[in-house]
Each structure stands twice: as structure tokens, then as C-alpha cells.
Design brief:
296 residues, 40% helix, single chain, elongated, two-stranded parallel ribbon
């Protein structure tokens, strides 16, 4: 599971050059051994450590917390949801979670963030415009494998991903899906190298207007089940009528459901790990505070 914060870090690391960098880490996170030692100490001493700024917003801890809670509260005001508040301490989010590293932050979408991730490229006349749609929730290797296979379908592909609004995703996936809201999913998909453009809040049915507007040459879908639209119609009936619909096998069996099941299965282990990590980080904060006081 690689969300857009990670993708931005990796992009910065790649831009540093072709020379070997032993340690690349975010500047707003911390990694310590069980005895409180900085795990990058030797790398720093050798002058081979770099820090990359992570995009502010969603954290892995927050996403795991949403999966464990299995509630729709993450799409609303969590302060008003008692069930969500009851468990937040386990994820470094509640009143007991004071570590700036284990704790999570709330996502705020801005146009600047979208521009930061968007390719900004318009399709060229010789490009093959390919349209795919879905939730792309918890953007993972299965999604990447699918988009890569779609990318290989043309010599000069221009892939447009239609992302469905949260309510639409919840209609056809149920439970507490999507785990990530539409803004978070937008940046995650935009961070993928195979994606040229994203339609934020795309219609569930691939309409004639959509196909004509983007001059779509090909419409693709993975091997997962296609849920019928609200009126019982096939959402891909128009591209099928035009003969431009194609199923694409990603070769990966990983799904968002499988990731959620793994997290839930290991819930207790995760909560214990997170609590120990929080305590360790708070101890480091206290030690840093004492050192600062001694200097003065």
C-alpha cells in the first residue's frame, strides 16, 4: 500500500541523481531501535543520508486505523462519532497520542497539491486515449500492475482514470468503503507514472458524452466483477456498443479487500506495536527536551 505521501518521497529521491544513497527518509518521521538509538546513525556519520519532505496529509497509521475500525466515520466529522473516538488512542490519534511521528494528521486538499502530482500534459493527436474507471482505493501493486498492462496496449498511450465519488463507491462496494476519500485517492492515482489525467468524480456509467469529450479510443476494465448501475444497466454498455471495450488481466490477485482482511487479522499485533512505538517516541521527546534544557 503506497499512498501519495510515499510516492512524493520516492520521486524526490529519484531526482537526487544516479549516485548511491544509502539512506533516504522523510523529515517528519522517526525510526529508532528498541533501545532508542537512531537507526540511521551510521549512515548519517558516513554522509550518505538524505531527507525528503513528505506531502502533508494522510498517513499509513491513519489508513490502518480506518480499516480496523470498519466504520464510515472517516468520511464524516470524527469528533462526533463515539465509536471512532473510542479507538483513536490505539492509532496515536486520540488524547493519549502526543507523538508527532506516530500521530496522524487530517488531509486537506488544495489545488497546489493536485498540480504537484499532475503531469500537466495534454493528449497529442497521435496518442491513444485510454479510459479506465473505478475506486482505486488504498492504491496498491494490483492497481499499478493493471495500469501498466493498460499502458502497454498502445505505442503512445494517454491514460485517463475516472475516480468515482465516495458515495458511489460505497454503493457498489458496501461496508465502510472507500477507505480513502476522493481527494486522497486522486493524489494516489496521479502519482502513478502510467496515469496522464484523472477525472475526479467520474460518472459510474461510461457515457457517450464522456467518450466524445475526451476522444476516448479504448475503454478498459480489470478482471473484477462489474456491478450494474442503479437502474440495472451495464455501466460499460456504450463502449461495448462502439466496440472499444477491453478486459485486461493485471496478473495480480491482490485487492483492496485482501489488504483490509490482512490488517483486521493482525489488529491486536498492530495496536500493540503502535502503542510501543508511541511510548518509545515520547521517551525520545523527553530526552531531547532535557538536553535542550541542559544547554541553557
Amino acid at each position: 500500500m503506497v499512498h501519495y505521501g510515499h510516492s512524493n518521497q520516492l520521486r524526490q529521491a529519484r531526482a537526487m541523481g544516479d549516485y548511491l544513497i544509502v539512506g533516504v527518509h522523510t523529515d517528519d518521521d522517526i525510526t529508532l531501535t528498541i533501545d532508542g538509538k537512531d537507526t540511521y546513525e551510521e549512515v548519517k556519520a558516513a554522509g550518505r543520508y538524505r531527507e525528503c519532505k513528505r506531502t502533508q496529509g494522510v498517513s499509513t497509521t491513519d489508513l490502518v486505523g480506518r480499516m480496523l475500525l470498519m466504520t464510515k466515520a472517516h468520511h464524516s466529522n470524527i469528533d462526533e462519532d463515539l465509536d471512532y473516538r473510542k479507538h483513536t488512542d490505539n492509532f496515536g490519534k486520540g488524547p493519549k497520542g502526543h507523538s508527532p511521528w506516530t500521530g496522524v494528521s487530517q488531509f486537506l486538499q488544495t489545488s497546489r497539491k493536485i498540480i504537484q502530482f499532475a503531469s500537466g500534459k495534454e493528449p497529442e493527436p497521435e496518442d491513444t486515449v485510454i479510459y479506465v474507471a473505478g475506486a482505486f482505493d488504498l492504491f496498491h501493486i494490483g492497481h499499478v500492475a493493471f495500469l501498466e498492462k493498460v499502458h502497454q496496449l498502445a505505442e503512445k498511450p494517454y491514460i485517463i482514470v475516472g475516480l468515482h465519488f465516495d458515495q458511489e463507491v460505497n454503493r457498489y462496494k458496501g461496508k465502510n468503503y472507500p477507505i480513502m476519500n476522493i481527494h486522497e485517492r486522486t493524489l494516489s492515482v496521479l502519482a502513478c507514472r502510467y496515469v496522464s489525467e484523472v477525472v475526479i468524480g467520474a460518472p459510474y456509467a461510461v457515457t457517450a458524452d464522456l467518450l466524445d469529450h475526451f476522444k476516448v479510443t479504448l475503454v478498459c476494465h480489470g478482471m473484477t466483477e462489474v456491478v450494474l448501475d442503479k437502474d440495472g444497466s451495464d455501466p460499460y454498455q456504450e463502449p461495448k456498443r462502439r466496440g472499444i471495450f477491453q478486459l485486461v488481466d493485471s496478473g495480480s490477485d491482490l485487492t483492496t479487500d485482501l489488504i483490509v482482511q490482512r490488517i483486521i487479522k493482525n489488529r491486536l499485533q498492530f495496536e500493540a506495536r503502535n502503542q510501543k512505538k508511541e511510548a518509545k517516541e515520547l521517551a525520545v521527546l523527553e530526552a531531547m527536551k532535557r538536553l535542550e534544557e541542559e544547554k541553557h
